[in-house]
Amino acid sequence: AYLSLPPFANSALSSLSRSLVCVATASRSLPRMSAPNARQSQGSSMSVITSRSTNGAGNISAAFLEPEEGMILEVPNLRIFTFAELKAATRNFKPDTVLGEGGFGRVYKGWVDKKTMNPMSSSVGSAMVIAVKKLKPGSSQGLEEWQCEVNFLGRMSHPNLVRLLGYCLEERELLLVYEFMAKGSLENHLFRKGGSVHPISWALRLRIAIGAARGLAFLHSSDKHVIYRDFKSSNILLDTHYHAKISDFGLVRNGPADGDSHVTTRIMGTYGYAAPEYVSTGHLYVKSDVYGFGVVLLEMLTGLRALDTARPAPQLNLVNWAKPYLADRRRLPQLVDPHLEGQYTPRAALRAAQLTMSCLAGDPKNRPSMAEVVAALEKIERMKPPPHRLISPRAAARTMHGRTQTRIPTPPPH
After folding, report:
1. Long-range contacts of 41-44 (CB under 8 A, 24+ apart)
2. What's one GO MF term for it (predicted)?
3. Sign of dihedral through CA atoms 66, 155, 168, 57?
4. Residue among 289, 235, 295 at smallest CA distance from 262
5. How far apart are CA 244 and CA 356, in angstroms?
6. How far is residue 153's CA from residue 146's CA, in Å, rounded to a whole number?
7. What are all long-range contacts of 394-401, with beta carbons under 8 Å and residues at least 24 apart?
8. pLDDT 10s per residue in the chain (414 long)?
9. Taking a C-beta distance cutoff of 8 angstroms, is the pair 264, 282 a contact?
10. Cβ within 8 Å of residue 367, ≥6 positions away
11. Of 100, 347, 378, 402, which has the fewest Cβ atoms less than 10 A away?
12. Is-contact 377 383, C-beta < 8 A?
């Protein structure tokens, strides 16, 4: 099955080929996974869902169950929705169903039947919540990202990657359908965007970091090493149980081949998270992702944004400003988010700081692999403080309400 580009896209995209987009044979452009934690589907790989029974029978949602270790499918396992179905599922894309908005377009909340994936009312007991991303009209970058999501994420299945359930390609309409992540993004929880969001604990931050690291390690474990390219806290989503999953695969690309150390590509991503070698030269390494992970780890450790124009100029870039603290165990406590007081041991904080520093190394060769990062985080997670050191709920409440959200430690001397 081939998906041809809609007529309007040819004039909008000078950078994209006018050839047909092959979804069913996407395995030609994606490498096979070869890591110990990944298994390749063999023979019985699920094919693209292209039809539905007229009587609604059959458990389509069962096809979206994830294996524990993750796997790569031979072809995308996606439901093809009609625009009318997604319009009904989102209540005609009503403003009150908007979950967020990005460069691609708006994301809407929708409801479908758990078994048939057909649209239905939210009041029905068997309704399953979905997230529907709708392309902005005339967005040339959005079309390229839409293709990337279908061709990459459509074939990947891993507990720490957001599931792409299906898509719609109909005339001028391009949409993507994902599983709904009830707790929103890590960014919202770290920086408390929204009145009902409270600071997350040390233990939960570690669990989230481990989950996200496992997702990146899975991507890097292919023969050609899939590079995510835009790792940041807003792209880590949390489900009802705060289980972390990486989302937004619009900038993903294959890594270097034929013994090369890097690929050269136009610079895309998010300033503050992008690796310095990529920003300065356009050279993209697998370990450029590790740098981005280090930035997020630093955000989790400090409770401060990677970039914040509200901070004084020397402190605008968190990485540049915080490195002297990370390297000095005596001053490290000044850097750690005060909301975490009493929840960790000094040894655990030091190990987290050392891991962060290694991820942020200037030379990609000196950064650990994501598999090594996972192992290091799991060791830190086992460093639990004794019970008497744990902060009480009352003390946590005092800490939460008694400290300013824009806390800035004393800058290190220059």
Report:
1. 41/71, 41/72, 41/73, 41/74
2. ATP binding
3. negative
4. 289
5. 19
6. 10
7. 395/341, 395/342, 396/339, 399/338, 399/339, 399/341, 400/198, 400/199, 400/339
8. 222 333 333 333 333 232 223 333 333 333 333 332 333 333 322 223 233 333 333 343 444 455 557 787 777 889 999 999 999 999 999 999 999 887 788 999 999 998 899 998 877 777 899 999 999 877 666 778 888 899 889 988 899 999 999 999 998 899 999 999 999 999 999 997 655 667 899 999 999 999 999 999 999 987 668 999 999 999 999 999 999 999 999 899 888 877 677 788 888 889 999 999 999 999 999 999 999 999 999 999 999 999 999 999 999 999 999 999 999 999 999 999 999 999 999 999 999 999 999 999 999 999 999 999 999 999 999 998 766 555 443 444 444 334 433 444 544 443
9. yes
10. 287, 290, 291, 294, 358, 359, 360, 361
11. 402
12. no
Q: Look at phi and psi of residue 342 and say left if phi exceeds 0, alpha if psi is from -120 to 50, else beta.
A: left
Token digits for 136? 């902005």
Joined tokens for residue 151 = 């061709």
Q: Which amino acid is at 146?
A: W
Strands 21-22 and 2-3: antiparallel
Contact 381, 206 (CB under 8 A): yes
CA angle (362 as vertex; 345, 412 as ends), nearest 5: 55
The residues annotated with a catalytic role in the active site are 230
